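YM 10:42: Protein FAR1-RELATED SEQUENCE sequence, as discussed on the call
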Amino acid sequence: MSVKIQHSGKWLVSGFVKEHNHDLVPPDQVHCLRSHRQISGPAKTLIDTLQAAGMGPRRIMSALIKEYGGISKVGFTEVDCRNYMRNNRQRSLEGDVQILHDYLRQMHADNPSSFFYAVQGQGQGQGDDHDEQYSSTGNIFWADAKARTNYTYFGDTVTFDTTYRSNRYRLPFAPFTGINHHGQPVLFGCAFLMNESQSSFVWLFKTWITAMSGRLPVSITTDHDSVIQSAVMQVFPDTRHRFCKWHIFNKCQDQLAHVFLQYPGFEADLHKCVNLTDSIDEFEACWLSLVDKYQLSDDEWLQEIYSSCRQWVPVYLRDTFFAEMSITQRSDSMNSYFDGYINASTTLNQFVKMYEKALESRNEKEVKADYDTMNTLPLLRTPSPMEKQASQLYTRKIFMRFQEELVETLTLMASKTEAEDGDDGDVTTTTYQVAKFGEENKSYRVNFNVLEMKASCSCCMFEFSGLLCRHVLAVFRVTNVLTLPSSYILKRWTINAKSSVILEEHALFSSYLESHTVRYNTLKHEALKFVEEGADLLIHTMWP
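YM 10:58: structure's back
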């Protein structure tokens, strides 16, 4: 269509080509035209409210359609809603990231020698050169004095969890955690990742190690992720890397949902195959049987996780320390340190407050466990000198776990099968088969050198958890070893785990039992018995 203005001031259509025209958009489709798509003020307010509550664009659009009486009356599409929400997040993120930076900068100013933080591309918070405005694109890491001290005592094994994304911006919040001497989760540092590239993880791991004075862990547990795996191999080449078995099980329920639904017994068979096999040969045979039974030989995802089984199936990992008391139960270190404090609507501004509340709660639980250990007496279940010794050395929770193993020795038989002579003709190492009475077909092999007081079991519980298993304890019982050898008392599990820096996590020094602190604790426990007896005697005297 061509139009022109005449001398009279009127407009005149001078040309019209019908073929170039098109039908007008029907009223119920007008909202699809870019020129007509606008988000009104009231709609923006409603979107903001629902977004803050953690709802996604699809659910928000459903609510808007219901509110306005149809999609044509909303006035915009789901794509427009998604774009608006993304811009919202970016604006909020930039503001909240600045608040987080301000918080970290203030924490460092208050504790310049102990609080560590760093932003990728902008150095670490160790001086007064951090007054510039921060970019929202940089990954952030920090560790306070408590986290760094915790790592000094309990940094032998570490869990790095990137699956915790419950915050408003869906940013991976990645805490480094471990297990303390009470079996409780402890924090070794935190990070917010703006992206999950290999370079980001490499930077984060190197920064974390710098904050921890360069000391590498014995083992590290992460999610099953190839990018993280590559970064771990680069930064921690000598650290044993394990994929979290429980994360893999959760993925399995998603990837093999049809199998779980069709075969109710599949979950139990999978659990038995992974957790209850005692040797590599037994696991591999059980896995092949499982795959054949449920016709899963062509499942690509199952083949993928089997190819990495050496990094998540317990039977391949038992020779490495992971500070776990049970293979079949989930460790507390796998549970987020911040569960119950952060949810899908948490902003970074709110996170700062909840972070401090979580730290306060965890610290209080540790104080309570310390108090219970030092000021109450456990119930002994046997007359064994070893049990009494352990009750005076271990924290309460660890002692209770050791006590379970010790009591179970009463159901075991230890039979001598081999003896190895030394150079002088004396027997040095003896091999025992240990089995439960009536279950002789399922036995464990224990080698015991009586001269060096060294024992090893095929179950590898001591190597994996740092506590002696019932099988070794059964051999000690039949060979009249009445107290725990000092080499099998891991300091990190004892009452005195924090009495000094742990230079060697896998054994106590020979002078440990003679230390002033241990003598003090032993005498204190003995004194409590006399106090209780004295109180009872007084009661009987006053009220005969």
